[in-house]
Amino acid sequence: MYTQERTTMANLVVGGPVAVNSYDNAIVAALVENRPVMLVHAFNGGYLRPAELAASSHDKGVKLATALDPATKDARGHLWHITPGGFFGQRPLYFIESAAGQVPAPPAGTADADAGRGDDGTPKPQRRRVTVHQDAPQSTADTLQVGLPAKVADKWRGKNGATEDTQLWVVTVTPWGGITFVPITHPDAILGFKDHAVAKDSEARLTYNWGGDFTGTVINTFYPRLPNEWDVPYHHVFT
């Protein structure tokens, strides 16, 4: 249970220059404990979800939804894991992984199980990751896909020779309590929306980060929310 009395992680710094304290329970849960969270947009309170929820879908993108329908909730399509994936200099990198369509970990001793293990030695579940198009954001084509590394199309595979570099993100905590995503393959870009329209069913894509740094812009901020916090009022940067 997450409460405001939880103070042992006070002033924990994750992914950026802003100190995260124990009151930012959802950020701590997402970045440190890898608990699934909702990614709620700062502008209109909509949440990110895969365009397709099925585990077999690897060539569809991400969109913003404004109503949490039962089908999405049952499929866990509103939940994401922000999973550690290494470092970029001294900055930690993360995968944005969908909880929808998650495949259980393979049995121990199999080849698939040996391919990916957590720090505790147990096999990791297969989760579809948000992947960036190699030509983003210059291309007007779809620039994001949600799929397993081996299942996405060629233009969504490792740009610089590394299998996963098109799936790794710098996650920066903003001064107003949200987070911003910057792909390492396009450091001048930020996770945004097609035509800069933040509305129902807006297509998520990369957009230029005119701020020119990892803090990003206000409109492209997301608030991590634990599932039970969906109806809890939160700080809105435009009010």
Structural overview:
The protein has helices at residues 25-31, 70-74, 111-115, and strands at 12-13, 19-20, 38-41, 47-50, 62-65, 80-88, 91-98, 129-132, 144-147, 169-173, 179-183, 189-193, 202-208, 222-225. The chain is mainly beta and 239 residues long. The longest helix is centred in the first third of the chain and has 7 residues, at 25-31.
As a whole number of angstroms, the C-alpha radius of gyration is: 17 Å
Number of helical stretches of at least 4 residues: 3
- The helix-and-strand class reads mainly beta
Low-pLDDT segments: 1-12, 112-120, 232-239
* Mean pLDDT across every amino acid position: 77
* Helical coverage, percent range: under 10%
Strand coverage percent? 25-35%
Largest sheet: 4 strands, antiparallel
Give the overall shape: globular
Note the gap between the termini. Answer: 29 Å
Order of helices and strands: EEHEEEHEEHEEEEEEE
Strand order of the largest sheet: 4-5-13-12
Total strand segments:
14
Task: Using brief descriptors, characterize the structure shown.
239 residues, mainly beta, 4-stranded antiparallel sheet, 14 strands, disordered C terminus
